[in-house]
Amino acid sequence: QVQLVESGGGLVQDGGSLRLSCTASGRTVGNYGMGWFRRAPGKEREFIAAINYSGLSTLYADSAKGRFTVSRDNAKNTMYLQMNSLKPEDTAVYYCAVRTSLYFPGADNQGKYAYWGQGTQVTVSS
After folding, report:
1. Alpha carbon 118 to chain centroid, angstroms
2. What is the pLDDT of residues 19-49, one digit of tens each?
3. Closest Cα to residue 77, out of 19, 23, 6, 1?
4. Which residue in 2, 50, 62, 107 is a FRET match for 99, CA 20 to 30 A apart?
5. Which whole-number Å values give the CA distances from 71 to 40, 88, 89, in the listed order?
6. What is the C-alpha R_g of the chain?
7. If you ran DSSP here, which 8-state letter would residue 56 be given?
8. In the chain, what percentage of residues exceed pLDDT 90?
9. Residue 97 near residue 4 (C-beta atoms within 8 A)
């Protein structure tokens, strides 16, 4: 079993930056892909970014490209999401998730992820 805890959310102004962290416990996740998703008010949860087990492969949603960077530190069992140039439409609850697979294709598919965190709120004011 894997427990995931997100942190780093908060209130930021339009154009600001935040760095989210996702720390895993209960099991080493260094062999598994990880991803970030978000759910905006009144919308479905959507894919934002993913990273493979080694950190050498990443995948981004169009909305995140050029502004967000996903990374991981396997020694700390932690994944990060650096978010720059934030916009009000980025306001959402951000979730991290872990796949129990080395396989990276399909990383934008929520159904491929076995474990989820509780989420952290990000609010971008205009």
Report:
1. 12
2. 999 999 999 999 999 999 999 999 999 999 9
3. 23
4. 62
5. 23, 23, 23
6. 13
7. S
8. 94
9. yes
